[in-house]
């Protein structure tokens, strides 16, 4: 039953998922229930979340799943996971940079607004003196 219901958990990495899968397979082998390599490869590909579907499709189209070793699949998935994490980290860094630039821009604008306010106050003061002198 665990084998049929097996899926990758949210926020679980490939290595942890594969370890859980291996434990289930080993327990089933102890009960004389075995699965072929291609059945296990297909099961792993089916258990991946929706965000992995482009990679799953690429593997299905590029590889012969009947002869693809489980360890090769694991290596391919771990490599893909690392590249996705790097991309996420790069995007996060870029977002932080953009926020810092936006903050600096806001601070500069606020500073310019303060300068404008001071200038306006000075002009108003001079204009009042000018009007007072005219009387």
TrEMBL record:
UniProt cross-references to PANTHER family, sorted A to Z: ASPARTYL-TRNA SYNTHETASE (PTHR34676:SF27), DUF4219 DOMAIN-CONTAINING PROTEIN-RELATED (PTHR34676)
Protein's name according to its UniProt entry: UBN2 domain-containing protein
Organism: Cephalotus follicularis
